[in-house]
Amino acid sequence: MRRAAVVWWLASCLVLPVWGSTDIIPQLEKLERSYLPWQPRVELIAPLSAEIDRYPPDIQMRIRRLGCWTQPMSSQDALREAVHHTDLLIALARQQQDGRAEIEFTTCRGWFNQLSGEGALASNDYDQAIELAQQRQAHAEEAQALLRRGAMLSFRGYQANALKDLLLAYRLYDELGWQNRAQQVQLEMALCYRRMAQYEMAEELLTQVSKNFAEVDDVESHSTLYREFGMLYLDRGLYEDALHMLQQSRVYADEHGHKIESALSYLAESEVLLRQFKPEQAMSVLNLAGEILTPAVNPTLHAHWQLARARVEVARERPHDALQLLSRAEPLVNREENTQMLLWLYQSRSDALALLGEERAALDALRQFVVLEHRLDEQQQSEQRNWMRSEFELTKQEAENQKLRAQQEVERKEREQVEERRFWRNVVILLCAVVAILLLVWLIDRNRRMRHLAFTDELTGIDNRRRIMWQGEALLELARRQHSPFSIILFDIDFFKKINDTLGHHQGDRVLQWVVQCSRSLLRRSDMIGRTGGEEFMILLPGSGLLDAERVADRVRAYVASRVLPGMNQAVTISLGCAELQPADHDLHALILRADEALYRAKGNGRNRVERAE
Q1: Residues 303-340 pLDDT 10s
Q2: What is the pTM of this model?
Q3: Is 587 helix (H, G, I), strand (E, B) or coil?
Q4: Are 126 and 110 in contact, with CB atoms under 8 Å apart?
Q5: Is 419 a catalytic residue?
Q6: pLDDT value of residue 234
Q7: Angle (nearest 5°) at CA 256 between 253 and 260
Q8: Which is catalytic among the residues 141, 330, 535, 611?
Q9: Is the dihedral of CA 57, 72, 117, 269 positive or negative?
Q10: DSSP 117-180
């Protein structure tokens, strides 16, 4: 506050200009920092994309990066078109050598490949994006790719590796100060912990996220949050609580037109009803989900829907329908490499075949189930070990980070103190400079005024004796060097003592000022006049000979004599003597002496006249 006040004061005193401008950059930064569902993001970015040609190339690329995630994803054809368009964007980013844009477009393409069911392509895109981001130290882009890859790994059952990615993404977003995106990472982490049966940690994270979401109007996030609570309660056997949360999630999504979110909640509800031994109700719910999750919309989710329906058909003792559904779902489930889904598939097939009396085939399917379950157990144990190892490493890393942050905080405070001292030092220097400038200005002005007082006659405002004599010497020397004429005129006011005695000194001062004013009005710019005594004056005429000096003197005399000073009942006259510089004049005093003699002759010859020295 003190520094701000000082800066404001200095700016006010020195009249510093403050420039401001408004542009699109703050809006882009806000969109880049925030996680937004698809529809709100489309509504915000569409106007920018429509006017993209208005902006410079770097701004255009930032708009394209944001717009990549808003491409239509409602069908397989739309997803294929999105992948193709993103390939063009990657080529454009490489052409413009924009590494950050290339990383984000690669991550975006991985997301579209994942939605299309192309898990291998998606994994390759995420790996490539993370590698490029680490090479370029693009932390925001790295966090984004880690989040996407971590979510995919979690879905496939690789929870430890998923958590490693998600924890790193969370740390990067937290260091960047992108809290909204960090909360989305926490939501994915809670899903990981639930799948690892770490229910307390999952609930703790979900509760923390729900507090942050309470003030955010984000339909997709709220719906996902309720659904995750429902799945958590389902895994813990709290079926009624699970149903309540899942229905809230579905209702919230239905009210805002989010069909995919509604369908996912329907799928989860059917699992709850199935575990409650309510297959008919579960089938009714699945039929509603099936109206949304068509193969054209999302083949992967459609396969999940077929698998869920097959399990319900087994519970309804309709094995033929179950086997048909399993056969249609199996290719996508296998390609997706989701171990949990494969377990449900083999178990449902074994149960369906057993209902048909095909014991050998049922036993083969059961054997596949057991082998896969054993592999899953081993994988989960490995994941647990990896997770514990990661937790230990993260704890150790966090302790080191805390130590480093503490050290950085100390260094930051020291830098602030140095900056504070430097700031005040600069303020003092600036103030001293201002004071010095003001003092210099004052001294120059004072010197000018003192010089004026030293060389100016206070009463008349013309040069005093010292000044006019100095100028006369200088002009005399110049005339001699240039061999040019130089003359002077001496004059005084006739009967000035009588004026003072009869009219007073105040009126005498007025006469002096008036005579000076009259004389100056008739002189050239190069001519000079000065007061040499009480009522005596001298005029310097550089470049003028004796005849010119005589004419000037007579013009001055006539002008003064022809006018009457207001307040005077008689005319004021002057007597003048003029002389020209001669070789015999050794200095100005010799010239003045001759002019003075001429002045005395003028007075002796009746005054109000001009005499010249021979």
Answers
A1: 888 888 888 888 888 888 888 888 888 887 777 667 77
A2: 0.57
A3: coil
A4: yes
A5: no
A6: 86
A7: 45
A8: 535
A9: positive
A10: T-HHHHHHHHHHHHHHHHHHT-HHHHHHHHHHHHHHHHHHT-HHHHHHHHHHHHHHHHHHT-HH
